[in-house]
Amino acid sequence: ADSMLLALQLSMAENNKQHSGEFTVSLSDVLLTWKYLLHEKLNLPVENMDVTDHYEDVRKIYDDFLKNSNMLDLIDVYQKCRALTSNCENYNTVSPSQLLDFLSGKQYAVGDETDLSIPTSPTSKYNRDNEKVQLLARKIIFSYLNLLVNSKNDLAVAYILNIPDRGLGREAFTDLKHAAREKQMSIFLVATSFIRTIELGGKGYAPPPSDPLRTHVKGLSNFINFIDKLDEILGEIPNPRGCKSICWKINNWNEFWKCSSGQK
Known about the structure:
- One of its GO terms (cellular component) is cytoplasm.
- This is PCNA-interacting partner.
- InterPro entries: P-loop_NTPase, PARPBP.
- It is found in: Cytoplasm; Nucleus.
- One of its GO terms (biological process) is negative regulation of double-strand break repair via homologous recombination.
- The chain contains 13 helices and no strands.
- 67% of the residues lie in helices and 0% in strands.
- The relative contact order is 0.08.
- The chain folds into two domains: 1-77; 135-261, PCRA, domain 4.
- By secondary structure, the protein is mainly alpha-helical.
- The radius of gyration is 21 Å and the shape is globular.
- It has helices at residues 2-20, 27-41, 55-68, 74-85, 96-104, 109-116, 122-149, 154-160, 170-183, 187-201, 217-236, 244-250, 253-260.
């Protein structure tokens, strides 16, 4: 669900860029469109629901984004599963309304309210914070793994481009996104091509002053070189299907950060 929401946010920012020149979007517009998108894709009633301007354009950009990234969202997977199991007897399928609740986070509402009545202790707070850190760590590691097997996955790049800090913030991602659109390439391929050209050109080569990626050379070089290291590790593992083996190969999370930041 997080990835779907991020894909929608990027699609809306891209649409705003085309109509107003700014690659940005407000959170309120994203949430409004998110609600409408879920109902529409799940074939649930959308009557009397508010929707932002240019929704059809946003929906097309969203669908194209997934297609160009070699991805399906959860609703696409759900619909394919329903089609495959439609003839199976006694098969309990998830209803569209249940999936809507899952994607909207409503299934956690009761638990969250119950937790509010429990006094917070240092131990319980530590456990909850630790769970959040572990969840974030898994998301980041899986994003790196996703990029290794699918170089067109722009969502993975969005998650990990500046984790750990490489000085590649919002401006760097926006510049990469614009370059990717102009060249009709994935963000990762644009970054890789840019860095490879500099590396092959040697000391006598420098990107032209007009190239917006020029200011991000150091961070992009760090990012691409780290992906190269992970790719080498993946090639050394006899059976890479178990993604945990890559993490064990790196030894632990602290070593992962050191390796990623160029310390090791």
